[in-house]
Amino acid sequence: MSPAAGVAGRIAGTVRADIRELAAYPVAHAEGCIKLDAMECPYELPPQVRDDIARAVRDTPLNRYPAADLSALRQAVKTAFGVPEAAGLLFGNGSDELIHLIVQACCNPGEAVLSPWPSFVYFDMAARFDHARFVGVPLTADLELDLPAMLVAIEAHQPKVVFLAVPNNPTGGLWPDDAIAAIIAAAPGLVVLDEAYQPFTDATWMPRVLDAPNVLVMRTVSKIGLAGLRFGYLAGHPDWIAELDKVRPPYNLDVLTQAALTAVLRHKPVLDEQAARLRADREPLAAALAALPGVRVFPSAGNFLLVRFSGKLDGNAVHQALKTRKILIRNFSNAHPLLADCLRISVGAPAENAALLCALQEILSA
Ligand code: PMP
Q1: What is the reported pLDDT for 22?
Q2: Which pLDDT score is estimated for 134?
Q3: In the listed set 266, 294, 325, which residue is the last one of a domain according to the structure?
Q4: What spacing in Å lies between the alpha carbon of 299 and ligand 1's midpoint?
Q5: Residue in 221, 222, 233 to alter for ligand 1 test, most ligand atoms within 8 A of Cβ
Q6: pTM above 0.70, yes or no
Q7: Owning domain of residue 325
Q8: Which of 16, 108, 122, 361 to pair with 296, CA 20 to 30 A apart?
Q9: What sequence ranges are listed for the domain Aminotransferase class I/classII large (predicted)?
Q10: Phi, psi of 135 (to 5 degrees)
């Protein structure tokens, strides 16, 4: 028998059964497509900012591990993003990594990680990978937070960690402040407010991050024009941050990311302006989509819209028809019963939004 012939058997006997059953996180091939599937910012940074990044990267030595002292970057992040001076900060290779670190540090095998559901799929994935038990508390039929159900589930499952994506992905909903406060008060462990889409709304928990003993606020730069960098940050009481820092892989933030980020943060208004443009374009796009036959648009505080198709074509058919026209959006039709026939559309540049609307008009009137 060739060595290769034995691989399947060894994998079956070695890799966890639950991992073997999973599919890897889907990332679509996007060459030549209008890409509205991943809530990226469609705008490239202006030449002057790119020149500054290029200089910073060129002057960064690669022969040494990243420095231990990240206090300069920490201060720059605090200033740029309104993190309270007294808060501690943990940096991650994307906020995906921070989600892992939180679960790893907090959960013994089988202990609960809880989130309203549907929400960011990686809360569930990270919990499973890290041997925790994921509890998803269904949203209402209108995709709003079900606070009574959340409080019952918190009481029943005593979660070590509650993740609240505010605004929520993939629905776009913004959970009310008093509901968040009630969850924080009821949770026996940590509540992580994932503010990945905060740049597209005024709401934030950041100024209050130190007000309760069990809250952390997590953010990312991925949605404000820097998804290629892989940088997320977690803010909270320095003692919480010190505990989570113990499970961080050494040198998780590479020197090129640090250099590029430091250079970009000197141009923070450019990032703000890009986010403001997407925010301003969200409602006109929502109105144009809602005017199409058989289309329901859910209210969104993010840089994306969740849309339900209930006309002649179902969500799968619309998704496929757009794909044929080289327009990529994300299909949630089969992801959860509450998301039946739902597609998620990133707000793109004006020409991309126009192309999407034109294609949908054609598809839905065919
Ligand atoms: N949180 C939420 C709610 C998200 O939607 C995403 C990305 N889709 C992330 C976190 C992860 O962001 P990143 O790893 O790019 O920082």
Answers
A1: 87
A2: 98
A3: 266
A4: 20
A5: 222
A6: yes
A7: 31-45+270-365
A8: 122
A9: 33-355
A10: -120, 115
